[in-house]
Amino acid sequence: MEWTPDPRELADLELLLSGAFEPLTGFLGHDDLHTVHERGTLADGTPWPAPVTLHLDAAVEPGDEVTLLDPEGLPLAAMTVAAREPDGLTSGPLKALSTPEHGPFGRLRRTPAQVKEALGGRPALAVTMRGPLDDLSEILATAKELDGAILLLPLAYGEAGPAVVRAALRAKEQLPAGTLVVPVPLAPRDEPELDLELRELVATAYGATEHLAGPDPVHIPGPPHRRGLVVFFTGLSGSGKSTIARGLRDALLELGSRTVTYLDGDVVRHLLSKGLTFSKQDRDLNIRRIGFVAAEAARHGGLAVCAPIAPYAATREEVREMVESVGADFLLVHVATPLEECERRDRKGLYAKARAGLIPEFTGVSDPYEEPDDADLVIDTTHISIEAAVSRVLDTLKSGGWIR
């Protein structure tokens, strides 16, 4: 079978294949993961600080081969499954199939073996970076004492990756000739201590004699009215979410202070998701497509309004992560009109058809709706007008500073 890992897993896969995660030769399984959490070692006692895992949402058995793809479908590696846990944790040896294709600054990428060859046996000071280096004096002094080369390793993961590489190239201009800049796609770990240990191990794999960790950047977000925003409505069919979303779109266009993208569930079904069924798999794919388009609009400071049913909590969380990963904000609005009221309205006759068995897997009747417990705003349209509901959303946007 084929599988596309998520961005963090893909970054770890590249480091596994290149040897930057030496001595690891594959993703961690249950036993290794347990000892990493408990003792900071692999199951055989080899020191290793942080989880490096792959979760596979598919039924595979030991001995099966899984081809791991990049987002564009390029086969990167073949994994022979050694074990898969109930939560999807999958481990097994990896075999490289091709070299990952890189975007900005791809020409600077090097494997640890290539960097060691370029160093030619010289001692090296490696500096791992997640942001600009404001003071180069410690780097210069340490390299002089070491009488070695300087190796700048910008940790180019995610949206901020190109900016970190640019910061490394600016620093190189003020450092001695022969300074190397090699981007490394190391995703940050949640615990600073573990992140630092992993940076040191990667630096050593690239030939470092000594390692300095550059300071973490201070992120000061812009004001809310300049940041991208996705207003994501969820609710049963007939709850009023599409009508409120259209009213919000119209009100925002009248204000004229934000660029607005409107993604209604039915409209998307006719265009972006034409041909998809109403199976759980296809409904999830439909929501992911809506989330992707909304995140792209928000990436550039736009405001996207989405109004699908989005019945599953895990898929809504995926959309939130998509949006927040591009530096935008996410506002979840649950239009919590009860099923009885939605069915009473039933303007399209959908509930009647679902009750008659003519529409399989219909949300609220033959398929579940998972009510969100993380909604930023909850609206029941049973006893309020659409105008009042739109006003409540607008008031939330104003109080949050997203519109002025």
Automatic annotation (TrEMBL):
Enumerate the UniProt keywords alphabetically. Answer: ATP-binding, Kinase, Nucleotide-binding, Nucleotidyltransferase, Phosphoprotein, Transferase
Q: Name one GO biological process term.
A: sulfate assimilation via adenylyl sulfate reduction
Q: Which residues bind ATP?
A: G235, L236, S237, G238, S239, G240, K241, S242
- ATP-sulfurylase PUA-like domain residues are 6-82
The record's Gene3D superfamilies line, in alphabetical order, gives: P-loop containing nucleotide triphosphate hydrolases, Sulfate adenylyltransferase
Q: Locate the APS kinase domain: which residues?
A: 227-380
GO cellular-component term (any): cytoplasm
Q: What is its EC number?
A: 2.7.1.25
Query: What SUPFAM superfamilies does this protein map onto?
Result: P-loop containing nucleoside triphosphate hydrolases, PUA domain-like
Q: Which GO terms describe its molecular function?
A: adenylylsulfate kinase activity; ATP binding; sulfate adenylyltransferase (ATP) activity
For this protein, what reaction is catalysed? Answer: adenosine 5'-phosphosulfate + ATP = 3'-phosphoadenylyl sulfate + ADP + H(+)
UniProt pathway annotation: Sulfur metabolism; hydrogen sulfide biosynthesis; sulfite from sulfate: step 2/3
Q: Does the keyword Magnesium apply?
A: no
* Cross-referenced InterPro entries: APS, APS_kinase_dom, ATP-Sase_PUA-like_dom, P-loop_NTPase, PUA-like_sf, Sulf_AdTrans/APS_kinase
Q: What class of enzyme is it?
A: transferase
- A Pfam family name for this chain? APS_kinase
Role description: Catalyzes the synthesis of activated sulfate.
For this chain, the family text in UniProt reads: Belongs to the APS kinase family.
Protein name according to UniProt: Adenylyl-sulfate kinase
- Tell me the name of the encoding gene: cysC
